[in-house]
Amino acid sequence: MTPRKRLQTPVRWAIASVVLVAMIFAGLLIMVLASMTSPTTTDPQTMEPTDIGALRAAIGMLILLTLPWYRKVPLLPMVAGTISAVVLQLDPFVLAVGLTVWITRSQRRWHWVVAGAGLLVIAINAALHVIALTRWPDADYARTGQVLVVTLAALGIALVLGVSLWVRQRRSAQHAQATAHSAQQSSAELSDELTRRREREDLAREVHDTLAGRLSGLSLHVGSLEATAQRNDADHLGEALRTTRSYADQALTDLRVLLSSLREGGSAPAAPAKAPGGVADLQDLLDDAGSSGLQIHPYILLDGYSAAPEALQRAVLRITQEALTNALRHSSDRSVRARITGDEKRGITLDFRNRSGSQTSFGQGAGTGLIGIRERAELLGGTVEVSEENSEFAVRVHLPVGAPDPTP
């Protein structure tokens, strides 16, 4: 228990004790007033309690001792208060206290039936006092007493209903506020999780599209280097070594860019993220794939591509890179037909086709390449079609020009 809570506990006990004493005092006062409405409990001549009135008062004070349980067991003061109000024909104060807590906590239908019966008992008690006053010798005293009894009974019923319903409304508002806060917190946590998931997916695509392509080309060049070394072809060996080193350096640069993007504050100054450079980047990409041994038959007809949004240019580059890497790995004749067309109105269409042997296929890989292509296209509102016919694999992607930047 914290020090603050240790300090609050005695204060709460003190307040509860004061409230309980005040309730018992009010109950005694109301019981005395209620005893003055019947000649059998109070002598009309001397205004002193009769023997029956004294006995009823003693039992009524014992009933007041049930008030300390009004919060834990509200049904106990309700039952005792009903006996006091109907059998002893005293006041319904104890009943009203328990009934207020009962209505505040009522949830089921039978709870409300019991609450309605308690309110009816208060009305019956008022009627018994009004009838008892008709036997009082002083007519003026009897009429005044009847008016007071009816007024106090109506006020008591209104007070019970008002306090209990106000507490219920307050608790309902607090519960709704807590539920709304919990829902808002859950929504924020879900939003953060979705953001982190999207960032992981973006990073996975970048790693696959950059490092996977570089390492695939490096692997092919190492194989070519091994064959050149076996042939003792010194003329081509130096060129193959330089190409292999170039691929390794490019893979290292891509790795530095990806790692720097994970640091707080974005890319490091030594390895800034390169912005797309328009058609020149496409040309470099095709030249790079051609130097890796892939025979490319390109058809590129783009209008306004260099002025297109960076997200669109980056998607075109990554999709083209992945398609060329797949063709380099799986094509039986190391060739691919690449067709990239589009303008500001129709969007950009990318179409890649290559032949494959009986042992190679897009489907025999891990499948992450096509997943990355689909994800990039969907982020921009585009579509992807993959088909196979007559041992030819085709990947067709359409990207709208007016797509928003999907960067989180």
TrEMBL record:
Domain Histidine kinase/HSP90-like ATPase: 313-401
Catalytic activity, EC: 2.7.13.3
Catalytic activity: ATP + protein L-histidine = ADP + protein N-phospho-L-histidine
InterPro entries, A to Z: HATPase_C_sf (IPR036890), HATPase_dom (IPR003594), Sensor_HK_TwoCompSys (IPR050482), Sig_transdc_His_kin_sub3_dim/P (IPR011712)
Gene Ontology cellular-component terms listed: membrane
Segments forming domain Signal transduction histidine kinase subgroup 3 dimerisation and phosphoacceptor: 199-265
Chain segments annotated as transmembrane: 12-33, 82-104, 110-133, 145-167
Cross-referenced CDD domains: HATPase_UhpB-NarQ-NarX-like
Keyword Plastid: no
Pfam families: HATPase_c (PF02518), HisKA_3 (PF07730)
Record keywords, A-Z: ATP-binding, Kinase, Membrane, Nucleotide-binding, Phosphoprotein, Transferase, Transmembrane, Transmembrane helix, Two-component regulatory system
Gene3D superfamilies listed in its UniProt record: 1.20.5.1930, Histidine kinase-like ATPase, C-terminal domain
Any one GO molecular-function label of the UniProt entry: protein dimerization activity
This protein's name: histidine kinase
